Amino acid sequence: MTEWTPETVIAASVAGEAPQTTPEAFSALEPEVIALWRLNGGIEWAILLSVTFVIITVGSIMLSLGLWFWALLAAWVLALVVAVVQTIWYPPLAYRYSAYRITDRVIEVRHGVWFRESRLIPLSRIQHIDLRQGLFERSYGLATLVFHTAGMHESSTPLPGLAAGKAAALRDQLIGQLHHRPLPASVTPPDAPETTNGDATL
Is the distance from CB of 121 to CB of 107 less than 8 angstroms? Predict the structure, then answer.
């Protein structure tokens, strides 16, 4: 019995086979993406909290806020607690509810903790595929595939948290599949020119 992975599904689709995919065929992201999300979230929160702390401190000195300073400082401490909890607790949950699968017709990407979203990308609508690697992604050996589509509400869909080598292989195989797809029924190839005595008649 053939084990259908994203790579074998793509290869089978090119060969004209139709694998039987099931909801259990979803693939998880790489676990290293949890540390990456924690790092990105920590940096964002650190910048935000640093700026607000400076504003609160300078404002209290210039405007003599008095008791308002302590109220704002208490709110800042509360925001700090929220930042720490979210940075540590949220990425594992986001990882748990993030998955993808590739069938012979669509790519399905699932994500979301509070509001879960499942996005279907028909292979026939994909125009091109980008492979992106940010500075921190490279340090974790990860990459993001971005699918650009035509005729959809959102023209691009990212798929983060892939191993860099696997992302490159999936991109190349999907591009190969797109090059093998047939022309739409409404598009017919031009007629070959008639030839007379070896010369083409235009």
Answer: yes
